[in-house]
Design brief:
By secondary structure, the chain is an all-beta fold. Helices cover 0% and strands 48% of the residues.
Length: 114
C-alpha cells in the first residue's frame, strides 16, 4: 500500500515558479512509475508529466514541455514537479499518482494570476 501527499501549491504571478512535492509512504514507491495529473472542477483530467521508477526516463505533455521538470528522490520517497514560466492556464489542482492509477493524493491547488 502506498499513500501519497502533495504539497507546494499556492498563488503565483504569471511567469513565476513553484515546486510541487509528492511525499509517499511505503517501500513500493521506489519501484513505481509515477505521474503528475492536473484537473480543475468540471474539467477533464490532464496528463502533465511522467517518470519511471529510477528517474532515468521522463515524459511531458506538450503544454508544459520546456517549462516543467519532473524528478524523484527514492531515498526520500518523494517526487517533485518544478514548474517555471507559469501561465494562467496552468491553474488547476495537481495530483500525483502511480502510473497504474492505483494510488493518488488529495491534490494541491496551483493558481496563476496577477
Amino acid at each position: 500500500q502506498v499513500q501519497l501527499v502533495e504539497s507546494g501549491g499556492g498563488l503565483v504571478q504569471p511567469g513565476g515558479s513553484l515546486r510541487l512535492s509528492c511525499a509517499a509512504s511505503g517501500r513500493a514507491f521506489s519501484s513505481l512509475p509515477m505521474v503528475w495529473i492536473r484537473q480543475a472542477p468540471g474539467k477533464e483530467r490532464e496528463f502533465v508529466a511522467a517518470i519511471n521508477w529510477s528517474g532515468g526516463y521522463t515524459n511531458y505533455a506538450d503544454s508544459v514541455k520546456g517549462r516543467f521538470t519532473i524528478s524523484r528522490d527514492n531515498a526520500k520517497n518523494t517526487m517533485y514537479l518544478q514548474m517555471n514560466s507559469l501561465k494562467p492556464e496552468d491553474t488547476d489542482v495537481y495530483y500525483c499518482e502511480d502510473a497504474g492509477h492505483n494510488y493518488w493524493g488529495q491534490g494541491t491547488q496551483v493558481t496563476v494570476s496577477s
